[in-house]
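An instance as discussed:

___
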Amino acid sequence: MMRNFGVLVALLCLNACASVPQTSGVQLVSDKPLETVTDEQGRNVSRYVDAARLSSIKSYVLPEIKLTLPVENPDISKEQLALISNALNRSICTRLGQYLTADTDASGNAMRVEVSLTGITPTSKSIAGLSAAVDTFVPGPFRIPVGMGAIALDARASNDEGTLAFMRWAKGANPVFNSAKVSSIGDAYALIETFTREFGQLLLQAAGGEEKRAKLPDQQIQSNETLCETRFGKVDPVGKGASFLIPLSPEFIDKGKPETTKASEDGN
């Protein structure tokens, strides 16, 4: 009976995504018409893609995205926002690095990615903690479908010849697929991976065209991964694995940008 209850709860939660956040930040200006992909309560996506020009791109510039809060929010500190920014940079870097060569010289033909935070809804830490406690007793995934976070982002890929792709993206957490983390940025941090997966597919596979871009040789992928890890650090694999079972916060499993990188950027 408990198993049936857990399945029922999961089915109900599938349609209980958090609403996308209200857009209050500075949107990137798109010089191309955007096609609406989806416009729902929990997910809004519109995009532009120049598949022909993207197919000729062979390299990318290491991202240097620094998100800023659309409006001051006492629940999200500048350190937490820096953690989200770094996670975004890391994810973009490693995803692109499987197919494109990292260009440390930032040549004109290399693809550059810029991202703007246009909206964010903090996660309720108290409700997330309660959800995690209840989840230990209910079979299957369980999360109370209130107090969930959301994030909205504008992203543009371009080179010296202009815009290659643009995505206006917003998504709220899903109580089945996004487990509760006791942190005000728990959901926003998790949704970064969803965003980079979708934006990465747009850039690398031209929105699902028939011709699939081949991955680089393993040695080149490893070289790109090393560059990304040196610049943006890595997530503790043990902590990340444990976070699927217990509600570890992003701040606990991700230490952010390496101190040596921070020091060089500060000019020390």
In short: The first strand starts at residue 35 and ends at 39. Residues 1-14 have pLDDT under 50 and may be disordered.
